[in-house]
Amino acid sequence: MLLLYVTEPAGARRWLRRLMALPLVPVARIPAVFNAVVLAAPQIPEAQALHRYMTATWIDQQSLFPPDVWNTYAIVSILLNTWTNRSRAQ
Length: 90
Hints:
This protein is mainly alpha-helical. The chain contains 5 helices and no strands.
């Protein structure tokens, strides 16, 4: 159970947060960023299983939900630009 590792091993919490932040990365950079997160993963048994699951379900272009389906980078960029432009106009 991953919840047990959030506070125990060094880096486990940071590793999980990086995985959860993948939707905020540009689509073209997701494989490289995911590989970097995998390389920095803590040495816990569940890490490899989670990496395999994420690759098969979310990361590969042939996966069940490829990155262009769930990525929010473009949406967040548009919202931030709109907010910034409105703030400057005031």
